[in-house]
Amino acid sequence: MEKYLRPTSKLRKCNMNRNSLSADRISELPDDILVTILSQLTMKEAACTTILSHRWKKLWTHTTGTLDFFEGSNVLWSINLFVEMKLRHPQRVQERSPFVKWVNRILESHNGATIDGFRVHFDLDSSYKSDIDSWIKFALQKGARRFELDLERISRSSEDIYPFPAQSLIGHPTINNSLAHLQLNYVDVTRELLEYLLSNCPFLEFVSVRCSQSLVGAKVVAASPKLKYLEISDCDNMEFLEISSAINLGSLKYAGPLASLCFRNVPNLADVSFGGKYCLDIVEKFQEQIIPPSQIEKLKFDMRHIVYERFDTFPELKNLKQLELVVLAWDGFGVLPYATLLAKCPMLYRLCVQFEWFEGPIKRKMEEKECRLACLKLVEMSGFRGSRSDMELATFLVTNAPYLEKITIDTRYPTHLSGTPMQALQKERVTAKERARQYLSPKLSPEVEFLIL
């Protein structure tokens, strides 16, 4: 006679744990909770859940997160990919129609009442105007808080740029009631539209307009009370920008042609960035600018297209904590004139220098300069080549910053070698690293963190 052995309490507990682990508890949740969970995922991640079961097949179409149609990445114009992407331009043009069809198909299947954001990043021109118009209409109907339309062209051509339909935005309830973040790149924007956005969107915090050929300027008497960031870059026909009463505006970026910039009642504007031809103008006339020098805590000068050697008349930036410089360099031109600028920044804590190289015919001896940088703790140098220009600046910094805590030498992406075989790029990086170790290490105290990339 067989005996029946009753499972022990420990065995029963083990079986219960095994059953609980194998059970699909997530699918037991209500649809609205599952949609909330899916809305925290990327669009592609949410779409992958369709394979789980029949019930999950349509759930992702109700997501309320960000619909992100992103093809490519911000490294599109890095040195290693530049030539490759230029060669791929004909192929990229052929990819436009499939991309547009993909976006249209997703939008047609979306059943959610609202979305938090809408983003498109792809090389498209005005020949797809009707499709892009419908995407904008969709985003507005869904009440998107964040809207990004980046149609950056591989060819860098300014022809056939998509014109943003101002009539779609002006007066639309979504614009007035929810829009907080707007980015437009390689999209033509009119003065009328920009002025409307900056004046009539009470929740608007972030505005970026880049590579718009139609934009000539904007005059805003009373900006959005929540506006914190404003960028106008590479708009070749800009003539003026006047902003008044932007009490929460904290960051401003302008890069482009000479233009009249005027800001009134911007008490929190402490982070400014300038580039293009305007950069030279503001360096020469900084004393005349409406932003008090003592108000600036973070400053960037993108001077890759100009050569500037005199900062003698530059005002003191007594509260500046961070300085970022993009400088044009070659062996025949030293970057030590920028040391005069550093001397004007007694509270400077962090310095970033990016070198943009080209080959110059003049050779010279390295120079020396003294200037105590008592507050400088962090230094980052990118595009480091180990030549006279960057070596003398690095030597100046490690010699004159007695309380330096960390210096980073980044030898990646030397932009002066566009089109050079990868083997030559790697060889130059090895040389640059060796020179940095050989000449800078002996000058650093053991307490300083020295990072070479």
Explain this structure.
The chain is of the alpha/beta class. Strand 2, helix 6 (129-141) and strand 3 (146-150) form a beta-alpha-beta unit. It has a 14-stranded parallel β-sheet, covered by helices on one side. It has helices spanning 9-22, 31-38, 43-47, 79-87, 89-109, 129-141, 166-169, 173-177, 191-200, 277-284, 337-343, 388-400, 422-440, and strands spanning 66-70, 117-121, 146-150, 162-163, 181-185, 187-188, 206-210, 217-220, 229-233, 240-244, 251-255, 260-264, 271-275, 298-303, 322-329, 350-357, 378-382, 406-410, 449-452.
Question: What are the key terms here?
Answer:
14-stranded parallel sheet; three-stranded parallel sheet; alpha/beta; 453 residues; 13 helices; disordered N terminus
Write the topology of this structure.
Layout: H1 9-22, H2 31-38, H3 43-47, E1 66-70, H4 79-87, H5 89-109, E2 117-121, H6 129-141, E3 146-150, E4 162-163, H7 166-169, H8 173-177, E5 181-185, E6 187-188, H9 191-200, E7 206-210, E8 217-220, E9 229-233, E10 240-244, E11 251-255, E12 260-264, E13 271-275, H10 277-284, E14 298-303, E15 322-329, H11 337-343, E16 350-357, E17 378-382, H12 388-400, E18 406-410, H13 422-440, E19 449-452
Parallel strand pairs: 1-2, 2-3, 3-5, 4-6, 5-7, 7-9, 8-10, 9-11, 10-12, 11-13, 13-14, 14-15, 15-16, 16-17, 17-18, 18-19
